[in-house]
Hints:
The protein has a 3-stranded antiparallel β-sheet. The protein has 17 helices and 3 strands. By secondary structure, it is mostly helical.
Amino acid sequence: MPLFEYNALTNNGKTATGIIDCDSAQSARQKLRSKRLYPVEVHEVSDKNLSTGRFSLNRVSALFNRVRPRDLTLATRQMATLINAGFTLVASIDTLIQLVETPRLKQVFSRVKDSIEEGSSFAEALSSYPGVFSPVYINMVMAGEASGTLDIVLERLAEIGERQLSLSNRIRAALTYPFLMTGIGVLILYFLMTIIVPKMAGIFDDLGQALPLPTRILLRSGEILGTFWWVFPLLLILLITAFKRFQGTPKGALMIDKMLLRLPIIGTLIQKVAVTRFSRTLGSLLTNGVSMLTAMDVARNVAGNLVLSDAASSAASDVEKGGELGEAMSQSRVFPLLAVQMVRVGEKSGKLEEMLGRVADVYEGEVESSLESLTSIIEPVIILVMGVTVGFIVLAICLPIFTMNQFIG
C-alpha cells in the first residue's frame, strides 16, 4: 500500500506532520479528517521493500537511508522516556515520528503506529520489519507488553544498544591506528617502488656493471609493480568476492568461524565478544520474562560466531530435556570456564539473570584489555615490517654505489 507524507492542522491550529498509508491521496485526506486532522499538503513517498531492509530508489540510496543502530537506540531511549512520562504508546510513537531524523525510520514508525491503531500489538507491528528490529528487540517488547512493563523494557533495550555501540566504537578506535599505519606504509612503499626506484634504475644502467642481487630484485619488483599495478587491486577484489561467497554458505561460514577462533590472540578476542553478546542478551531476555528456550534461541543468533551459536543450541536442547544451563554449556567446551562457573553459581543461587549480566561485564572488560594488548603488539610489528622493507630498499640502492666507489678507488 502506498505511503503518503502529510502536513496538517489540528483543532488547536497546531501543525502536525507524519506518514500514513492509503490507497490514494484522496483516501489519505479522508483518513486524516477522520482523525480530526485537516490536511494542508499530502504527497506520496516511495516505500518499496521497506520491510525487507531495501529502499525503493536503488541499493546505493539504501546505504544512505538505512537505519543505523545508533538511530534506533536513540529512538528507543526517547520512546521509553515518553511512555514513562505518561504518554500512551500511540501518542509516544506519534511524538517520536516528529523527533526522528532518519527518513526510513520515520516511515517505519508511521507504519507501526497505523498497525497498532488497526488492532495489532506493538510486537506484532515491529515484526513486520525484520530488517530494522532484531529478534531480541521484538521478543523483549512482546514480554514487556505481556507484563505491563514496556517502559522498563524499552529502557533496557536502549541500554543494550548503547553498550553494544560503546563496545563496537572501542574496537573500531583500537584498530583504526594500526590500519592507518598500514595504509600509509603501503602508499609510501608504492611511491618508492614506482617513482624512486625506476629513476635509480637509469643511473645503474649507466654504470655498465653487474648489479648486486638485492638491487636486481628491487628493480625487477619495481618494474612489475609499475607495469602490472592493476593486477593487485583486481586480485584483492576477487579474493574478497570469493571469500564473501564462501562465507555465505553454511559450511563455509562455520569453517571460517572455526578458523577465526583458533587464531592466536584474535581468536580469544572473538570468543570474548561472542560470549559478551550472548550473555547480555540472554540475561536481558530472562529478566524481562522471556522463557528460557525462547531466550536461548534468540541469544544464540546474536552471538556473532556460528561455533558458539551451535554450542548454545546444543545447550538449549539439554536444558529442554531437564538439564542445567551451566552443565550444558560446559559440555560444549566452547564457552570459557569462568563463564560456565559463574552461570552455575547463578543457577544455584537463583540469580541467573544477574549473573549473566556480570558475565557480560567481565568479558566486556577483558575485551578492552585484549584490544590494548593486541594494539600494543600490532604497532611494533608494523613498524618492524616497514623498517625491514625500507632498509632492504636503501640497501639495494646503496650497494651499487658502494661498489662503484670501490671501483673508482
